[in-house]
Specification:
Elements: E1 2-6, H1 15-23, H2 37-43, H3 49-66, E2 69-79, E3 84-90, H4 110-123, E4 129-135, E5 139-146, H5 149-167, H6 183-195, E6 203-209, H7 223-232, E7 235-242, E8 248-252, E9 258-262, H8 271-281, E10 285-288, H9 291-304, E11 310-319, H10 322-337
Parallel strand pairs: 3-4, 3-6, 6-7, 7-10
Antiparallel strand pairs: 1-2, 2-11, 4-5, 8-9
Helix pairs in contact: 1-3, 3-10, 4-5, 4-9, 6-7, 7-8
Length: about 350
């Protein structure tokens, strides 16, 4: 914020004396200014009005100089030091189910809705380090925690394109990470990424899944154990279960026709299991049945894990008293030089 100020403005009260000198013409024999020898002397001066003006200007210039006029700005320093957040997203084939109702337009599949909502969430938290983990049968950290959110968005776009390319191959392709739901493995990768470096301002994991935990996988990791480890390390887990139990999705029947069918329980998230996982870490879970609900879930997480804003202010002002001081001294010199008694002519 640029501006002008007086650093010691109380000196400006002296300007009242300058006004008295400039506009009040004293009479000889008048009452004396006992506490103010300068004014007493000025009162007895027989100089012209110009001389009084010079004395007034001298007083005003020195008063302004003593008030220390300054030009400059108050600088706000904003430290980029928010939380460490890992977004952990299920990429199993069920994420291709198009049962997510948008606020406008046609339904979208779960993957598209989650990625769009994630981008909006990331954009609203510029001071956080954010990373990405995706999981199916196995898991991968595609982006470790970073302040470079453009890179995070690029990884979201790249992952979505890669997964859709795999799904386009048909039933023989299970996606680049498999078609299971190894929640514990995904959480383990995320926990490792946010605990390799201490972060005093907080850390959290946001788990987004649309299915039940695949207990039969050979590399299955217990998500409850990971959640307890996260709690011990000061990281909460927030879960979002994506899918509408009352919704429908597109399928192709035996005759090749595209039809809408009810989304059954096997294609829906296990909300009770999700709640147990998040509660073990001290976090909470939410259900997202449509796009507005998904955005609202992320908004609630945003409120539960607010970004700390570290701001410092410091003044960058420079004194500019030279000009008023010079004017005051010059005016005083001219006033004294024009005083008849000092020149021996009074």
């Amino acid at each position: 914020m640029n501006g002008f100020r007086f650093f010691e403005p109380w000196w400006l009260l002296v300007l009242a004396i300058a006004l008295v000198v400039a506009w009040w013409r004293p009479r000889r024999g008048g009452a004396d200014f006992a506490p103010y020898p300068l004014l007493a002397g000025l009162r007895d001066s027989t100089g012209p009005a110009l001389q009084r003006m010079l004395f007034a200007l001298a007083i005003a210039g020195m008063a302004v100089a003593l008030a220390r006029p300054q030009f400059g700005r108050t600088v706000e320093e904003r430290e980029q030091a928010g939380r460490d957040l890992m977004i952990v997203v299920d990429t199993s084939r069920s994420m291709s189910i198009d049962d997510i109702v948008n606020a406008s337009g046609p339904n979208s599949d779960r993957l598209a809705a989650v990625f769009l909502a994630s981008k909006a969430f990331i954009a609203a938290r510029p001071d956080d380090r954010i990373g990405l983990v995706f999981f199916g049968n196995t898991a991968v950290t595609t982006c470790p925690p970073t302040y470079d959110h453009q890179t995070v968005d690029e990884f979201l776009d790249r992952t979505e394109a890669q997964q859709r390319a795999n799904w386009a191959l048909g039933a023989q392709s299970q996606g680049f990470l498999g078609d299971g739901t190894n929640i514990g493995l995904g959480l383990g990768y995320a926990l490792k990424d946010i605990t390799t470096k201490s972060h005093p301002l907080g850390k959290a994991i946001i788990l987004v899944t649309d299915g039940a935990d695949s207990l039969d996988l050979p590399n299955w990791v217990d998500p409850i154990r990971v959640a307890k480890d996260a709690a011990a390390l000061g990281a909460k887990i927030y879960g979002i279960g994506v899918g509408d139990p009352n919704g429908t999705h597109t399928e192709t029947d035996l005759f090749g026709r595209t039809i809408r069918v009810r989304t059954t329980g096997g294609l829906l998230p296990d909300l009770d299991r999700l709640a147990a996982i998040t509660q073990a870490s001290g976090g909470t879970s939410f259900a997202a049945t449509d796009r507005p609900a998904l955005d609202n879930c992320l908004k609630k997480i945003d409120d539960l894990e607010p970004t700390p804003h570290l701001r410092r202010f410091h003044d960058d002002f420079a004194d500019r008293f030279t000009l008023p001081l010079a004017i005051g001294l010059i005016a005083l010199a001219l006033a004294l030089a024009s005083e008849p008694r000092l020149r021996g002519v009074a």
